[in-house]
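Researcher: I'm preparing a figure for a lab meeting and need a structural model of a single chain. I don't have an experimental structure, so a prediction will have to do for now. The sequence is pasted below. Please return the structure as tokens so I can convert it later.
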Amino acid sequence: MTHLVDMHMHAGFADDPATFAHALADANIASFANTVTPGEYAHLSPILTDIPTMRLGLGLHPWWVDTPELGTLDDALDAFIAQLDTTRFVGEVGLDFWPTRASTKDAQMKAFTCITALCAAKGDVLISMHSVKAERELLDVLEDSECLGRCTCILHSYAGPSDQLSRAVEDGCLFSVGTRMLSTKRGREYARIIPEERLLVESDLPAAAGEPTSVRDVTRSLESVIDGLARIRGTDLERLRESIGARSDVLLGL
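Model: Understood. Here is the structure written out token by token.
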């Protein structure tokens, strides 16, 4: 059986990230572990460096863009810039314009515009992106930065408008699909029509810092998504599993 590849998860949210990450590797699960701040990335890098099946993303999540523990936004961006030389994996970054996040919209735009410009200048960066109520603006920034042509851009758990989905497909984006996306009628329809060569799977686990999560939880989540995708798309389960796994391996350099 093809091994599982989790293309968006948060090892740093586990109570013991190193133990959790080693357990995933022992279970034959490869992963793209996203961080939410440059500080989290700096903390996890030496802890997870010896796990060959895990890639750690340098993140500046829109929820954390303007929080006191980061200092100023310029401090956070300076920390991001200083560490980008150490990796070709970036995530989680993006935009979230949900009404409760409206007060940080300008800070989010500044951060994401800076990050995409840096990634485009570096080139060959794999980026996992969060987008809520901001799909048009996110794609505008990606297009303006030339990031789409120089990097590989993944939209994590896409739930935006259908016209922006079509635009993202045309722009060459990939899509990591999880149980949350498959829990809605819109998400299932998107999962049906996204071209197969753009599909990835994710657990997005642990869902929050300190939330109890086992390797079995991750396995069940990924297996459920692959099974759901096969049923929704009317395709052979094992062939789809192999296709998604092989594509993910290439993206992670495994």
